[in-house]
Design a protein that fits this description.
The chain has 271 residues and is mainly alpha-helical. The chain is built from 13 helices and no strands. The protein has one domain (43-249). Helix content is 76%, strand content 0%.
Length: 271
């Protein structure tokens, strides 16, 4: 068995290296294209930025290109926050929220798949950390509620995706919890992007005029999300304390898992 585990780990390590190479090559190709456009084409960085903005906003395939970049973001190591704010700036509040919800959840499934396929490379060592072991235990016990909690308390987005895949959580529970739990953060950053100002002003060389109501709504949602996260953490801490008291009860029976194989998250279905 040890030789089989070593072979599996070696294969996963090789796959992880290939993924990093793929992301590096994508960035190298983008940098080369940029240099050719700017140096040989005589364009300025502002010209390139305006051309990208015009394509994403006005070309029939612009929105699909945006979704493709967002979905493949885990492979490109591109920050989700910039893409989310950019959606509000490019497509407005309503269009931005719709596109981000599609793109962000697609990227979550991609990262989940990477964790599921290459978990030994992407999360094997981290899972041995005592604190992460506790999180993993809760995820295995109730995938839907645990993922929803991690989304509400603004746990690192990609880390949750990779961990869920590594633990092979039920895909349906993971996706539904991600859709619900990521909505508050999506609204905050899309509204902020939409409130910064209109892209037409940037294309015309003018400073954009901020949309005060959208910026206020973004700030209010952000503060509300922080309050919700704090209340949710307090709720989870009380639940963990009750569970610990029950586990330490007479005879140590309490709420110890009997290992029967039944899990609360099974009601959410499996992939």
């Amino acid at each position: 068995m040890s030789s089989e585990r070593a072979a599996a780990h070696g294969a996963a390590s090789s796959a992880g290296r290939r993924l990093r190479w793929l992301g590096g090559l994508a960035w190298a190709a983008a940098a080369a294209l940029y240099l050719v456009t700017v140096v040989r084409g005589g364009s300025t960085p502002i010209d390139v930025l305006v051309a990208i903005v015009v394509f994403l906003r006005e070309h029939p395939l612009g929105a699909l290109a945006y979704l493709a970049v967002y979905a493949l973001r885990p492979l490109l190591f591109f920050p989700a926050t910039l893409l989310t704010v950019g959606a509000g700036l490019l497509y407005g509040a309503l269009g931005g929220v719709v596109l981000v919800m599609i793109g962000a959840n697609a990227s979550a499934v991609v990262a989940y798949g990477l964790g599921r396929a290459y978990g030994a490379e992407l999360g094997g060592a981290a899972l041995r950390h005592p604190r992460l072991q506790g999180v993993a235990q809760r995820l295995r016990r109730n995938a839907f509620e645990a993922v929803l909690t991690l989304r509400f308390v603004f746990a690192p987005y990609d880390a949750v995706n990779y961990l869920a895949g590594t633990l092979r959580l039920p895909l349906r529970a993971f996706v539904v919890a991600t859709v619900i739990g990521s909505l508050p953060g999506t609204l905050v950053f899309v509204f902020f992007g939409a409130g910064i100002g209109d892209v037409e002003a940037l294309q015309a060389g003018r400073l954009p005029s901020p949309d005060a109501p959208l910026l206020v709504a973004s700030a209010a949602l952000f503060l509300s999300s922080l309050l919700l996260a704090r209340l949710w953490r307090a709720r989870e801490a009380r639940a963990a304390e009750r569970e610990a008291r029950g586990t330490a009860g007479p005879g140590g029976s309490g709420t110890v898992d009997t290992g029967s194989g039944e899990r609360p998250d099974d009601t959410m279905g499996a992939a």
